[in-house]
Amino acid sequence: MTTVIVDYESGNLHSAQKAFERMAQETGAGAVIVTSDPETIRAAARIVLPGDGAFPACRRALYDHRGVFEAIEEAVITLARPFMGICIGMQMLATRGLEYEETAGLRLDRWHGRADHPLGPVAQGAAYGLE
């Protein structure tokens, strides 16, 4: 079984790769591959989307890699492959992000990020941006 860490030039790849390689070695979980190749992503048993940076910049970087989002979408939605987002990689699953500017997310999950009141009182559920 292969774990793919998606490289879209906007992530903490080295740390993620080392952590997943150690886990794979300790558990016999198979190979860990860092790639931006859509076919390799589609064929993976597990997919990890790391991220480091602002929501709008990371989303643009992901879409700049042709076919990568479509491969993630097919593997996660159609093929039901396990998926893990790290930091902004998890946040980009949302319908939209509100960091700096409103930006469409990957829409793989029905929530959105809120940046206008991170430390203030909020209504129940509002902190999670549930729609």
UniProtKB/TrEMBL annotation:
<dbReference type="GO" id="GO:0004359">
    <property type="term" value="F:glutaminase activity"/>
</dbReference>
<keyword id="KW-0315">Glutamine amidotransferase</keyword>
<keyword id="KW-0808">Transferase</keyword>
<feature type="domain" description="Glutamine amidotransferase">
    <location>
        <begin position="15"/>
        <end position="95"/>
    </location>
</feature>
<dbReference type="InterPro" id="IPR010139">
    <property type="entry name" value="Imidazole-glycPsynth_HisH"/>
</dbReference>
<protein>
    <submittedName>
        <fullName>Glutamine amidotransferase</fullName>
    </submittedName>
</protein>
<keyword id="KW-0028">Amino-acid biosynthesis</keyword>
<dbReference type="Pfam" id="PF00117">
    <property type="entry name" value="GATase"/>
</dbReference>
<dbReference type="InterPro" id="IPR029062">
    <property type="entry name" value="Class_I_gatase-like"/>
</dbReference>
<keyword id="KW-0368">Histidine biosynthesis</keyword>
<dbReference type="GO" id="GO:0000105">
    <property type="term" value="P:L-histidine biosynthetic process"/>
</dbReference>
<comment type="subunit">
    <text>Heterodimer of HisH and HisF.</text>
</comment>
<dbReference type="GO" id="GO:0016829">
    <property type="term" value="F:lyase activity"/>
</dbReference>
<keyword id="KW-0378">Hydrolase</keyword>
<dbReference type="GO" id="GO:0000107">
    <property type="term" value="F:imidazoleglycerol-phosphate synthase activity"/>
</dbReference>
<dbReference type="InterPro" id="IPR017926">
    <property type="entry name" value="GATASE"/>
</dbReference>
<comment type="pathway">
    <text>Amino-acid biosynthesis; L-histidine biosynthesis; L-histidine from 5-phospho-alpha-D-ribose 1-diphosphate: step 5/9.</text>
</comment>
<keyword id="KW-0456">Lyase</keyword>
